[in-house]
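Researcher: Re-running this chain for the archive, since the previous output was lost when a drive failed. Same request as before.
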Amino acid sequence: MRRIVCIGNNYAQYKEADAEGVITPGNLMQRTGTGGVVRHSTASQKVQPLRVAVENDIFGKGIDDNYAIGDRVIYMDLDTGCEFIGLVAAGKPAIAIQDLVESDGAGGVQKTVTLANAIGRATEALDQSAAGSAARLRVVVL
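Model: Regenerated structure tokens:
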């Protein structure tokens, strides 16, 4: 089974919080004022700490099984060198290997040329410019 997070050179720990919106494994997330989590909602912004939802394989769920509002979301805070499989929305510009990526403001990632906003580099190429649905992209955290 393909997994969202490949732990790199840190000791990232699994954490949990209540979903306050629908969250897909691979989404970038942010904490809310009530202690829950939602998809990261600001595009072109540095994400610190980098929180990524992972699949709930404890209950047999995979990377395509969404968390519903009120579910306990399993996530990790990732550091430099960790890899994760993020989501790139349909219609986004093509991403080449080693391109910088940033938050797209909807929990996914998108290509950027601004190092200050970048959260990672693509480790594979993906062209979503003519796609009809979101696709997965492996990213190494900066």
